[in-house]
Structures are given as C-alpha cells and as structure tokens.
Known about the structure:
Elements lengths: L15 E2 L5 H16 L14 H18 L3 E2 L4 H23 L52
Parallel strand pairs: 1-2
Helix pairs in contact: 2-3
Amino acid sequence: MATIEQQYLPPPDYETTIAEADRPRIYDAVRKQLGDLLEGDQSYYPDGVQKDWQARADDLDRYIKSFMSSQGRVNDPANILGDVVRYLRAHAEHFRDRMKEVGPSDPIELPPELSPTTRDRNELYVDPNPFAPPMKNPPFRARNGQSRPPPIGP
C-alpha cells in the first residue's frame, strides 16, 4: 500500500487592510446602512409597524458595537473605522437628544378634557365589548328559575 503524505494547511489570513482609498466606499456604506436603520426598511418590525425611537437607538448601538468589534480584526493604519465609530456615536447622541425633545409620538393616555365624565366628574366606564350593546332592561328571571317572561294580558 502506498504511503500518503500529510501536510498541514497554512493558517488562513484573517487580516484585511483598509487603505485611505477605501474611506469613501466605507462612508457610503455606513450612510446607507444608517439611513436604513433609522428611517428605512430596518426601522420597521416584520409586521409593518415602525419601531419606536428607543428601539431604533438600540439598533444603532448594536451597529456601532459591530464596528468596534471589527476594529481588532482588520489592519486599519488610517484609523478609518475609528473615525466611523466617532461619527456614529455623535450621530446616535444627536438622535437621542432630538427624540427626547420631541417626546412620544403616540400618547396612549387621553387628556382629561377629552375623557367623558359624569355630572359628579367621575370618568365613565367604557364598555369593553362594543359588539353587544348594553340592554335597557336586564333579561327577565322568574323566582322559580324559569327564564320565560310572564304572559301579557288576560
């Protein structure tokens, strides 16, 4: 039987170099992804509802962390990824400040002046089942447990 030679494969080269010429391409990709995270397709849940500002800010934080983790895996002598992280952090801070100034866009609580009240200023109970309107008179229940009303007339 023939002898099979064994040779180990060289370790893969995980190091990627980012040159200054790559800066515009990286910035364009970051701008596109940033727009998608905050206002594009990724700013919506799968069911079509737009995420609130806090969820979008959390997505932006995860995006920034992904850049921070990639900084150790690439050779970046011009510190392009460091500049991207600084830019994104400043943008995230500005986004949070702007959203806090605006406040919630969909307040759930009704203002007191729009809430229906009674004469004694108590709030009215809202029927939880709008498909079954309340009855004027409760159904007749005889004392003997029968549910039929008494006969009308002589």
